[in-house]
Amino acid sequence: MEIYWVSAFNILVALLFPILVLVYLALKKKEYLAPFGMGILCFLILEGAMRRPIFNLLFVFSAFTNWVEANPVLYALLFGVSAALFQEGGRWIAMRSL
User: Fold this and answer.
1) Do 32 and 24 contact (CB within 8 A), yes or no?
2) Could you give the angle at the alpha carbon of 20 between the alpha carbons of 14 and 25, nearest 5°?
3) What is the pTM for the complete model shown?
4) Distance from C-alpha of 86 to C-alpha of 90, rounded to nearest angstrom
5) pLDDT tens-digit readout, 6-50
6) Contacts of 36 (CB under 8 A, 6+ apart)
7) Burial class (CB in 10 A: 0-12, 13-18, 19+), 15
């Protein structure tokens, strides 16, 4: 039963909260919609079209798969750093263009 509460909390934080913020911004402060939308678009493009395919390509090589199995902490760090570089770097570039 506890897993369902965790899942419900994840859905609330990951989906419902951003949608509520978007609705609030759309109704009250229309000038903030472009940066909000640009951030969403950058995440979707950089995550789905660049970062994930790179990791999928790396997992084709058995040497990388063996390295991941031998070094799970380093893999987690690599995964986290790549997320930071791709997502925040892309958002920085996008926000400079606004």
Assistant:
1) no
2) 125
3) 0.62
4) 6
5) 677 777 787 788 888 888 878 887 777 778 778 888 888 888 888
6) 21, 22, 25
7) exposed
